[in-house]
Design brief:
- It is a single chain.
- The protein is α+β, with helices and mostly antiparallel strands and about 180 residues long.
- About 30% of the residues lie in helices and about 25% in strands.
- The chain has five helices and seven strands; from the N terminus they run βααββαβαβαββ.
- Strands 1-2-3-4-5-7-6 form a seven-stranded mixed beta sheet.
- Strand 4, helix 4 and strand 5 form a beta-alpha-beta unit.
- The protein is globular.
């Protein structure tokens, strides 16, 4: 399988949202259609907002002309004001100004062929200081294993309110990790 990757900076990625949504549905079968439709609306709204953010990148991987993977990333604002680690001093140290990988999806038929690694490597190039992070779904065992296998360091912290715990991974050379173990909240 010959895979080619293409980078789409900023709003250029918006024309790919239909393909992204289709691939996401293929990659996560078993959801009820109503959940998929709600998620698709949220995905489109998030893409529209993120694509207008300075530094936004989308990366596609194609086998011939078929989309077999995509990923997106953007730089986290300084100061960090998101819902991960709210009020925690580590949020500024770990996340403010770092590259946040927000999507990484690979078609089931393309898994195990290096597609996700190629996309991830391209998305993290703008993190010249190695400050990169991702917060995958803590129930997605394949995603958690993927990041662990590549040396990303995991911490687990409580979700917002009474929500479920969340997983946060820092890139393998994130400067906050220099000689320190990462601990959960």
């Amino acid at each position: 399988m010959d895979i080619t990757t293409v980078v789409y900076p900023g709003e250029a990625a918006l024309r790919l949202v239909d393909e992204f949504d289709h691939l996401r549905r293929l990659a996560a079968p078993g959801r009820v259609p109503e959940q998929d439709d709600r998620y698709a609306r949220k995905l489109r709204a998030r893409f529209a907002e993120e694509a207008r953010t300075p530094g936004f990148l989308a990366v596609t991987a194609r086998a011939d002309s078929l989309l077999c993977g995509f990923g997106t990333a953007t730089r986290t604002p300084v100061p960090y004001a998101g819902d991960l680690l709210p009020g925690d001093h580590r949020a500024q140290e770990w996340l403010a100004g770092a590259v946040h990988v927000s999507d990484l999806v690979v078609a089931p038929a393309a898994r195990g062929r290096g597609v996700a690694t190629r996309i991830l490597d391209t998305l993290t190039v703008p993190a010249l200081d190695d400050r990169v992070w991702v917060a995958p779904d803590h129930r997605d065992g394949a995603a958690l294993a993927f990041f662990r296998h590549r040396g990303w360091r995991q911490t687990v912290f409580p979700g917002p309110g009474a929500g479920p715990s969340r997983a946060l991974f820092l890139g393998p050379r994130h400067p906050s990790l220099a000689g320190k173990p990462v601990t959960g909240c």
